[in-house]
Write a structure and sequence with these properties.
Blueprint (H helix, E strand, L loop, with lengths): L1 H23 L21 H9 L14 H14 L1 H6 L1 E5 L3 E6 L9 E6 L24 E3 L7 H17 L7 E6 L10 H10 L6 E4 L4 E3 L8 E9 L1 E10 L3 E2 L8 H14 L8 H10 L5 H7 L2 H12 L3 H7 L2 E9 L5 E2 L2 E10 L5 H12 L4 E10 L10 H13 L3 E8 L15 E3 L4 E3 L12 E3 H19 L1
Parallel strand pairs: 3-5, 3-6, 6-16, 7-17, 8-15
Antiparallel strand pairs: 1-2, 2-5, 4-18, 7-8, 9-13, 9-14, 10-12, 11-13
The structure holds zinc ion.
């Protein structure tokens, strides 16, 4: 008995030691900046320009008839007036009137262009009374600029232009071409902006080396089990699918009802979908995220992340305990619309619901439909694809000048930060560019805590002037490193 006990203890100690050895031999995957970029003084009045840009109400409404075209024209005029070198030296092509495509020709035609995206439009304000400062005031309180778009996404549009203006002022003609593309309908899916711009570039035979769009940010206290700031670089995004579920059954008077009707059958189907979530597993971008994160963590989380073959179930439980974690581990199911019935004493003949799915990389639209049919398992529920689905694209590589320069720029700009690949859970204009580029990354250097995340599309959106200044420096550094 004693021998068995000694044997078990020895095995446990042996296992523990080998876990430690594996963990401690995994090295950091951070890339040090190759060159030290000297950043010139950024142009004075940068915060006033962001504040003024926020005051122009470039809102995208679901009902496009409501869109104020005058605001977009005013916004273009504003950019023209405030970024003189960009407008003098870069070629500006307007796509579908409001899409802005700026091209700075490089001297070396063998180098493919570097491309930066942002969008001009912002989401509407459902209730401005909950804002501390009016949403289109661009109020500057000395520390923050307030208003709709400061984070999504005029902050990055303006900081890219500030960086480009500064670059043109301090450098001659670059070797690599620089392309800036600013859509105007990202918040309503980018069909006329980004999609048309990418179509134009495809026709022109222009294939960028890499594309950098918004999508993920520099987080603080958001990624579990790590203290450092983590720059999340989106190397992939989830797919998008909405299914329309329809039941048609006999109606009639509600005084003598059958046991089931179209509404109750559909409700049962939705309940089944809610109760049977998709399988949770690590997709490629999330596995890479853990490979990069592991070596940067403190001893115990490092031990776990660097030995996932052993600790995976525990890490999974941690990630399944919060919404973002769950969304990175599985294809998500969200019923969003339910329509049925016209009168309280009439049994509805038809009921319909829309259910939105965000598909994990590696899975397909067909997969999801088959799975949904299997879960519902009721022929009375007809299932149709609604709108335009988007299959999850293959992840972009974690090598090459695009990814590497983004990483280097993050670690060079933010002292206590690391940069890791990740999966973008929402969508952005980037998804429209796969026809011309495989190296698409999503990162804008907004420094955000978990609490700050609620400002995106929410009330009291604001950015600190210090953060905004660092964003300009970040884009300057990137443009300098990739174009020169
Ligand atoms: Zn956005």
């Amino acid at each position: 008995m004693k021998k068995v006990l000694i044997f078990v203890v020895a095995v446990i100690i042996g296992l523990f030691i080998s876990l430690i050895i594996v963990s401690e031999t995994k090295h950091s995957r951070q890339i040090e900046p190759i060159e030290k970029v000297v950043i010139p003084d950024i142009l004075s009045g940068f915060e006033d320009r962001l504040s003024a840009a926020v005051q122009i109400r470039t809102i995208s409404y679901e009902d496009v008839q409501l869109n104020d075209t005058v605001a977009f024209i005013a916004f273009h005029q504003f950019l023209h007036n405030h970024f003189p070198l960009v407008h003098e030296r870069m070629h500006l092509i307007k796509i579908n009137r409001f899409g802005l495509l700026y091209v700075l020709e490089g001297s070396n035609p063998d180098l493919r262009p570097a491309m930066f995206l942002a969008h001009q439009d912002v989401v509407p304000i459902p209730d401005s009374s909950v804002w501390k400062h009016p949403p289109f005031s661009g109020h500057n309180d000395g520390a923050f600029i307030w208003g709709r778009g400061t984070i999504d996404d005029k902050g990055s549009l303006l900081s890219i232009l500030e960086a480009a203006e500064l670059f043109l002022q301090n450098n001659g003609q670059p070797q690599r071409s620089l392309i800036l593309a600013f859509g105007f309908d990202e918040e309503i899916n980018g069909e006329f902006g980004a999609k048309a711009i990418s179509g134009y570039l495809e026709e022109e035979g222009i294939r960028p080396e890499f594309i950098l769009d918004e999508g993920l940010v520099l987080t603080h206290g958001v990624v579990p089990m790590i203290e450092k700031q983590v720059g999340l670089i989106g190397i992939a995004e989830k797919g998008y699918l909405t299914l329309r579920l329809v039941t048609e059954m006999d109606g009639g008077h509600s005084s003598m009802p059958d046991e089931e009707n179209s509404l109750s059958v559909l409700a049962a189907a939705i309940t089944k979908l809610n109760e049977n979530s998709f399988d949770a597993h690590w997709c490629e971008p999330v596995m890479l995220f853990m490979d990069y994160l592991g070596p940067e963590m403190d001893f115990f989380p490092r031990l776990a992340f660097n030995n996932r073959w052993f600790f995976s179930p525990i890490i999974k439980q941690v990630y399944l305990s919060f919404a973002e974690g769950r969304a990175s581990l599985r294809t998500t199911t969200a019923p969003t619309i339910f329509r049925s019935g016209v009168k309280d004493n009439v049994i509805p003949q038809t009921s319909e619901a829309l259910v939105n799915f965000r598909i994990l990389p590696g899975e397909t639209i067909e997969n999801v439909v088959v799975q949904v049919k299997k879960i519902i398992n009721d022929d009375r529920v007809a299932i149709f694809i609604y709108g335009q689905p988007f299959a999850p694209p293959a992840p972009s590589p974690i090598s090459g000048i695009g990814f590497e320069t983004i990483m280097q720029s993050i670690t060079a700009q933010y002292e206590n930060a690391i940069a890791v690949p990740y999966l973008t859970l929402g969508g952005s204009d980037a998804k429209h560019y796969y026809n011309i580029c495989d190296n698409i990354y999503r990162f804008a250097p907004y420094e955000m805590t978990g609490e700050d995340m609620s400002m995106i599309h929410g009330a009291n959106e604001k950015i600190s002037i210090a953060n905004y200044r660092r964003m300009i420096e970040f884009y300057y550094r990137m443009i300098y490193m990739v174009c020169n």
